[in-house]
Amino acid sequence: MMGHMLKYSFLLISALFLAACSSTQPSYKYVNTAKPSSKTPGRVNNTPAPRPTRSSSKKPILKPNYPVYEVRKGDTLSSISRRSGLTVAQIQRYNNLKSTRLEIDQRLYLPGVYKLSKAKVNPPPMSYPVSKNISVIPRSRWAKYKVKGNVTPMGKVTKITIHHTDDGPKLSKMSDVKFLQGMESHHRNNRKWACIGYHYIIGRDGTIYEGRPAAYQGAHARSNNQNNIGISLIGDFNKAYPAKSQLTSLTALLSNLRSKHKISAKSVVGHRHLNQTECPGKYLASWINSYRASR
Prior knowledge:
By secondary structure, the protein is of the alpha/beta class. The protein has helices at residues 2-24, 77-84, 88-95, 176-190, 244-261, 271-274, 282-293; strands at 68-70, 107-109, 136-137, 159-164, 200-202, 208-210, 228-233, 268-270.
């Protein structure tokens, strides 16, 4: 009897303990806190993909094999003119531009110009002291040979054409006189000319040398030598502007020749104005354009 009572008592205490535990334990509910994935709306079937918006700016119709330049921030027609050697009017004409306004990434084609310098290069000032008494080294002081007989009289001078000699690989290792002697030897012996083709050559230090006597037509601009004085500056001016001393001498020489022959600044041209060539280099060509416009 006592055993049954103990057994029931034990069961009763166990039941009461379990009830107490179950009443104090909190109740948990699973909540999915992850945000539902947003579905990317797809294209409606049979609906064409949207086309990229085209720029409203009109671009020139590019001709094949023309060098193309893309306008960058800060570019102007004047700066591109200085860096390419083309005039502003030429750039406008080649690209059908009605105004001087440019847009970034606008494409321009620049015939004959295959590379522009990365940095903008400002042209040297145009105003240099001009001496009335120009000192010219006569050809008798540097030339080894006399002028051959296959020459044509110049006649009335109506034009002046400016060139650069370019700089051969050995130019930096020789004097201007040695360079002139080598050039005249090439013109006489290889090209069978009477003598050097230019009438005046301006050295790297600004010294002016007499080349072919001005009484005779030169050999410096194919099919355009008649009544045309040729001046060449020693150096390659696709790389940089001529030295200040060279431009000082060039300005003085041009002033003297224009006054003597009564010709205007518009009659002073670069070789590239007459023939298909890069001569006299884009930097010297830019200087010539400024010279023509400022006088």
